[in-house]
């Protein structure tokens, strides 16, 4: 196909499908309600901003806790210090919108790169675009302005490097790519262990296939990556900390994102569609996968079933495996149209245009981004700030609000926030006992010298405090209620 | 190989003690469930076995199908659409005859028979014995997530029968006449045994739609007719079409279907779903390694039941029972293929030897003797004591307090009880009516919401208790409402043990006591 001749406009004016995808995702994520949802679905966006801000202020990596009074001074294993600094810098520049821009850029880049990877691996353009869009749908359940979005991008690049090695056998390039990626990942987000699992899948595939060279190379690269992964502020302790956290059943069951998916919810439809794609691909197209690909498909499907937060990684990692059978199908159905569009796509050089539009969206379009007061104690915090003399003691706060309170009420230390792995099972159980009015819950509040509580208005703790003579209602609106101890 | 085996095989005289694999499976499941502690799990996992026994008992006593509620104070006299009256009568008869042992025996018999039927189906479809046995064990592991002494076990049994007959016709092994002769009456029976008879309609519907996809119009016509016939047959129940409306509206009300654990999605962190994970692994490995050439209907069947199982954990057993035969066929072909690999030779030798041994075995008398012995043990001795687990239900609270004379003085008004204890209280405390029990489809979303307001301790909890004249609560020791009532001046703790706590509203403050002061007076 003489694509160049058939271009309707000059190449530099025509963005490729990957560029379009990037732009569409970016614009979508930076428009409402997405951008608010990314920063305000839980308190962790604010929490990471606050931790990053502390590191920027003090020009050092955080080593001990300074935000809670329940574990103040305890050593912290910082799993994502670099991402926190990136978010905090963006927060300084653009506030909550800045956080949303970082997350949107990383997410859009991940899926645009996924699309480009699928095309580079020789997939048909309709199949590649369809699979990428479906992956986008499946993954969107966990799009939040938090460091884990870097894991999406790094998992994609890591898998791409492994697949390129499978095709070309270029060991040096693999060693270099994975070494650099490990260094970035281990400092950006705690889920860097996913990369090792991926490497392990291909390594096991090489062993089963009795491919000695491949086994040797992958073993050496695994050792290299393991050594590189020690180049983080906590060294080997980071690995131990992550593994211990993942093996703590209580926390895995307690944290919503580590629980199994609830298929009754609308948010699970994308995941259900991805599972359907896996099943239909295997049952109808009957592809022959390599052993490594088969292991990746099996393990990551299981991980996604176990914990909802693995769904985006499942989609990103299995898209390149599932796409080829559908490319073959599409080529059989629409050979001429597909090849023609692919030709135009190859000639499209419109990325400057896309970048200009993206810049205009980020820099020029109005973008008010606020924490929604109907879900967050925004007015209660204003009340606390107006009456500092009434809130001198220690606070007991709702878990989800912890990160927000760290950010907007830095003068008060929290009881708990989203750093569940740092707080540990014992403190979480204490928190659950108090909020569940469990045995001796009043004593536990006394043990921590809690002077005031900030909880959702419909929370049972408020109903119980109302009955206690030494507690008094200090503030209440539709969202939040504050009780203070009076003696 | 065969000759050597037949030489060593037991002679005619000794065949009676060596059961076939099928009988061994039946006996193993039946005896394991009745003799191990699993029998306590069957009856104690929730309050519903008690609930069904109580309702069945009422119907036996009154010689009538229950039409209005008799057991709750919140909806007493409200019309009741009984989804499983026949099972409840059967369970109650077993319970009345042999106590909890009777209910365990009936449940274990249903489970063992279900799995034995699956095994027979796999063999009838030409699969090798060892593979069939392995798939039955995997299916049993998956089904065990919902092995409880309740009417849904009838659905498991009938789902296997339906799946078997439908597949036999689909594979051209059974004439169309037999399909109608067996399945239509069975659907009428199913509609009286358990509310999940809709699973049978889904099975037939999938075959109908699958035939359309395969452009097999003759099959599509047959299955469409069968769907209509089964639908009509399902109307032969005490409530007619109202039963169908009730079930549909229940399934569409997410507040209700999400309320019960068994309608929620499987939790893959839990050990109880490992069987389901194993089934999914077998399916995935079959797809990846064997690359079967399934027809559209088979793919649709796996897809539909796979989604339903992911949607609600109670569908996991049906998924395992329905999908196992579909997986078995390509796996069997794959394993039979001659190979040089050591594992293949080992499998084929083991398979041939086991099949020869099975042909030489019989053991029906052993099975009869084992069941008869168990019957003697249950009826004539106290060796097999089967009672509800006292740490799961407020057994001591009832014995030591609620049924004592002190309770008449201290407990006034109606009871607020834990949801999971409702069935138990219906059975063990028939003189009091419950606030709620396992029949959440009957109670409806409004009452479930009111229950949640109190149970989760949300604003308005007192209003709900006042509305229903609740004078006392019976809740688990660590329940959050106890934490609140402990602080409340209107409530007094009158009983506490390691399992349950009872709070009573002070008599002068009882909602239907006219002298009760208002809220402002109290404060």
Structure description:
- The complex is a heterodimer of chains A (487) and B (523).
- Chain A is mostly helical and 487 residues long.
- Chain A has helices at 3-6, 17-30, 34-40, 44-58, 81-120, 125-139, 148-168, 171-188, 193-208, 212-228, 236-246, 249-254, 269-285, 291-306, 311-333, 335-347, 351-363, 378-386, 402-408, 420-435, 441-447, 460-467, and strands at residues 394-397, 450-456, 471-476, 480-485.
- Chain A has 22 helices and 4 strands.
- A 4-stranded mixed β-sheet of chain A has the order 1-2-4-3.
- In chain A, strand 3 (471-476) and strand 4 form a beta hairpin.
- In chain A, helix 2 (17-30) runs parallel beside helix 17 (351-363), helix 8 (171-188) packs parallel to helix 10 (212-228) and helix 9 packs antiparallel against helix 10.
- The model of chain A has no long low-confidence stretch (mean pLDDT 94).
- A 4-stranded mixed β-sheet of chain B has the order 1-2-4-3.
- The chains are: A mainly alpha (487), B mainly alpha (523).
- Chains A and B meet through helix 12, helix 13, helix 14 and helix 22 of A and helix 14, helix 15 and helix 24 of B.
């Amino acid at each position: 196909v003489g694509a160049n001749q058939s271009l309707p406009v000059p190449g530099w004016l025509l963005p490729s499908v990957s560029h379009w995808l990037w732009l569409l995702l970016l614009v979508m994520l930076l428009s409402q309600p997405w951008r608010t949802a990314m920063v305000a679905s839980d308190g962790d966006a604010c929490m990471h901003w606050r931790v990053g801000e502390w590191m920027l202020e003090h020009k050092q990596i955080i080593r001990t806790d300074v935000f809670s009074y329940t574990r103040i001074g305890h050593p912290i294993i910082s799993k994502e210090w670099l991402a926190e600094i990136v978010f905090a810098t963006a927060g300084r520049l653009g506030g909550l919108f800045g956080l949303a821009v970082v997350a949107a850029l990383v997410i859009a880049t991940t899926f645009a790169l996924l699309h480009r990877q699928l095309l580079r691996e020789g997939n048909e353009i309709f199949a590649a675009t369809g699979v990428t869009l479906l992956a986008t749908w499946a993954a969107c359940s966990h799009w939040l302005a938090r460091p884990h979005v870097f894991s999406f991008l790094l998992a994609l690049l890591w898998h791409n490097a492994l697949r390129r090695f499978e095709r070309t056998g270029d060991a040096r390039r693999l060693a270099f790519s994975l070494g650099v990626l490990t260094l970035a990942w281990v400092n950006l987000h705690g889920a860097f262990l996913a990369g090792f699992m991926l490497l392990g899948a291909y390594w096991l595939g090489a062993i089963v296939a009795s491919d000695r060279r491949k086994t040797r190379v992958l073993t050496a690269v695994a050792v290299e990556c393991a050594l590189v992964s020690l180049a983080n502020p906590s060294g080997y302790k980071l690995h131990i900390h992550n593994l211990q956290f993942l093996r703590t059943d209580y926390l895995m069951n307690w944290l919503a994102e580590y629980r199994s998916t609830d298929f009754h919810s609308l948010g699970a439809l994308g995941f259900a569609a991805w599972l359907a794609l896996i099943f239909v691909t295997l049952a109808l197209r009957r592809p022959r996968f390599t052993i490594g690909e088969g292991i990746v498909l099996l393990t990551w499907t299981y991980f996604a079933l176990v914990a909802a937060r693995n769904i985006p990684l499942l989609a990103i990692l299995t898209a390149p495996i599932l796409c080829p059978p559908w490319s073959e199908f599409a080529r059989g159905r629409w050979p001429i149209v597909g090849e023609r569009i692919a030709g135009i796509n190859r000639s499209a050089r419109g990325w400057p245009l896309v970048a200009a539009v993206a810049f205009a969206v980020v820099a020029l379009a109005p973008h008010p981004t606020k924490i929604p007061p109907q879900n967050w104690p925004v007015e209660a915090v204003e009340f606390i700030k107006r009456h500092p003399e009434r809130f001198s003691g220690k606070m007991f706060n709702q878990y989800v609000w912890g990160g927000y309170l760290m950010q907007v009420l830095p003068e008060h230390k929290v009881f708990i926030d989203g750093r569940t792995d740092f707080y540990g099972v014992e403190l979480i159980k204490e928190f659950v006992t108090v909020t569940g009015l469990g045995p001796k819950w009043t004593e536990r509040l006394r043990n921590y010298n809690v002077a005031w509580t900030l909880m959702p208005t419909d929370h049972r703790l408020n109903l119980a405090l109302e009955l206690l003579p030494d507690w008094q209602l200090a503030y209440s609106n539709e969202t939040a209620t504050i009780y203070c101890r009076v003696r | 190989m065969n000759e050597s085996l037949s030489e060593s095989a037991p002679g005619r005289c000794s065949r009676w003690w060596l059961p076939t694999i099928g009988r061994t499976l039946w006996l193993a499941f039946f005896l394991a469930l009745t003799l191990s502690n699993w029998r306590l799990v069957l009856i104690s996992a929730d309050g519903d076995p008690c609930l069904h026994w109580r309702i069945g008992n009422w119907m036996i006593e009154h010689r009538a199908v229950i039409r209005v509620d008799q057991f709750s104070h919140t909806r007493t006299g409200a019309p009741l659409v009984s989804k499983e009256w026949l099972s409840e009568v059967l369970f109650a008869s077993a319970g009345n005859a042999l106590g909890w042992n009777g209910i365990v025996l009936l449940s274990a018999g249903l489970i063992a028979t279900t799995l034995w039927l699956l095994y027979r189906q796999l063999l009838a479809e030409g699969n090798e014995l060892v593979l069939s046995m392995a798939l039955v064990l995997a299916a049993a592991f998956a089904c065990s997530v919902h092995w409880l002494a309740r009417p849904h076990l009838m659905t498991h049994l009938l789902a296997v029968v339906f799946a078997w007959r439908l597949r036999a016709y689909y594979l051209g092994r059974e004439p169309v006449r037999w399909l109608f002769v067996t399945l239509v009456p069975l659907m009428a029976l199913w509609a009286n045994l358990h509310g999940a008879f809709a699973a049978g309609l889904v099975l037939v519907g999938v075959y109908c739609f699958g035939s359309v996809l395969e452009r097999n119009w003759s099959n599509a016509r047959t299955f469409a007719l069968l769907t209509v016939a089964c639908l009509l047959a399902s109307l032969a129940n005490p409530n007619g079409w109202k039963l169908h409306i009730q079930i549909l509206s229940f399934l569409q009300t997410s507040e209700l279907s999400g309320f019960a654990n068994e309608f929620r999605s499987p939790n893959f962190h839990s050990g109880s779903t490992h069987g389901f994970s194993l089934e999914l692994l077998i399916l995935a490995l079959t797809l990846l390694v064997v690359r079967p050439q399934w027809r559209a209907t088979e793919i649709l069947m796996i897809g539909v039941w796979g989604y339903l199982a992911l949607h609600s954990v109670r569908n996991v057993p049906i998924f395992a029972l329905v999908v196992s035969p579909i997986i078995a066929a390509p796996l069997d072909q794959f394993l039979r293929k001659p190979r040089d690999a050591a594992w293949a030779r080992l499998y084929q030798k083991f398979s041939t030897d086991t099949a020869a041994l099975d042909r030489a075995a019989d053991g029906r008398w052993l099975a009869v003797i084992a069941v008869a012995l168990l019957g003697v043990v249950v009826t004539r001795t106290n060796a097999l004591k089967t009672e509800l687990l006292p740490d799961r239900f407020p057994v001591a609270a009832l014995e030591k307090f609620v049924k004592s004379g002190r309770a008449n003085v201290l407990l006034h008004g109606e009871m607020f009880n834990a949801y999971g204890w409702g069935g138990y209280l219906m059975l063990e405390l028939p003189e009091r009516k419950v606030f709620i029990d396992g029949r959440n489809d009957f109670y409806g979303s409004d009452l479930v919401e009111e229950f949640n307001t109190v149970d989760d301790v949300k604003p308005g909890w007192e209003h709900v208790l006042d509305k229903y004249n609740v004078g006392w609560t019976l809740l688990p020791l660590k329940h959050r409402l106890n934490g609140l009532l402990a602080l409340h001046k209107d409530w007094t703790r009158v009983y506490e043990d390691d399992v349950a706590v009872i709070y009573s509203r002070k008599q002068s403050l009882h909602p239907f006591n006219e002298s009760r002061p208002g809220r402002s007076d109290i404060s």
